Amino acid sequence: MPKSTETRGPFWLAAAALAATLTGCSKAVVLNPAGDIAAQQGDLVVTATLLMLVIIVPVILLTLLFAWKYRQANTEAEYDPEWHHSTTLEMVIWSVPLIIIIVLGTITWISTHKLDPYRPLDRISATQPLNAEVKPLEVQVVSLDWKWLFFYPEQGIATVNELAAPVDRPILFKLTASKTMSAFYVPDLAGMIYTMPGMETQLNAVINKEGTYKGLNSHYNGAGFSGMTFKFLGLNNEGFDAWVQKAKDEGQALDAAKYLELVKPSERNPVTRFSSVQDGLYDRILNMCVEEGKMCMSQMMEIDAKGGAAYMKAAGLNLPQDVCSVENADEVVALLEQRPVQQ
């Protein structure tokens, strides 16, 4: 039974609204971004799609053509039940896809190395070379549950859920996580990069246009995932200096105690600024030893590099008593150096 006009109307309106949502997502930001790395990644997507369409479009057209030409009602269509092979057709069927795969594989291999997130930039944009004297802006990123914490070691400030950078200046992101794995993603800037507790990833990028852009966590990580977003501000040099000064004037100090309060799970946090940061705080977060008296991962690894528990036992140190009896794990390493293993 056909649907009534009243039933079809809302359906088509909903479909049109969904299509508008999918196609009008911020000017198709992936294909029209404001940063050079993201632009190169978008070009790669377009190139790969066009190469694949070289096969897809003819196959679709030929499928429709054969369905029409050899339809049951067309009695004039040539029918040859004895046909079984054509060398020319075989050459076309195998050679064209093979050529496309070779070309696509070559482009992908080159782009994968060129756009490696750990690789320093070799240009600012397609028309602007990189000035070797310009120092990249370092930003240390920590993903929390469910918010983003940004350290600016050069400027001595930190922010929550707000990131800024000067236009046309290389940015070096160093990223880690407090507890839960997340994915740092600014579509206008570059591809996503994971953040993991106890590990550090890197991302090199640049923003080429002034504006306010959306940043988000593109990896589901719990109840507050949908609200784990932040603003990324592309500013001119004067605007960036003013933004830094605003943080220094309005913010508060960020130390280990404040961080331990900040790290508690919370959702949709407002922008927060910190005028100063305790020395070494990011390294303590990375090494998972913000709490007082907790041994850092780097110290554990140094002890392991010297032989670990077996070496300590051979050196006359008891576990875990001797480790727990020293306040600083560096003293454990010093004890190991002072008490060589008895041969």
TrEMBL record:
Which UniProt keywords are present, listed alphabetically?
Answer: Cell membrane, Electron transport, Lipoprotein, Membrane, Oxidoreductase, Palmitate, Respiratory chain, Signal, Transmembrane, Transmembrane helix, Transport
Bilayer topology reads: Multi-pass membrane protein
Q: This protein's superkingdom?
A: Bacteria
Residues in Cytochrome oxidase subunit II transmembrane region profile domain copies: 22-119
Q: Which residues cross the membrane?
A: 44-68, 89-110
Q: What does UniProt give as GO cellular component?
A: periplasmic space; plasma membrane
Cytochrome oxidase subunit II copper A binding domain location, by residue? 134-246
> What does the record list as GO biological process?
ATP synthesis coupled electron transport
| One MF term in the entry's GO annotations | cytochrome bo3 ubiquinol oxidase activity
Compartments in which it is found: Cell membrane; Periplasm
**Main subcellular localisation:** membrane
The entry assigns this protein to a family as follows: Belongs to the cytochrome c oxidase subunit 2 family.
The protein in question is named Ubiquinol oxidase subunit 2
**Organism of derivation:** Comamonas kerstersii
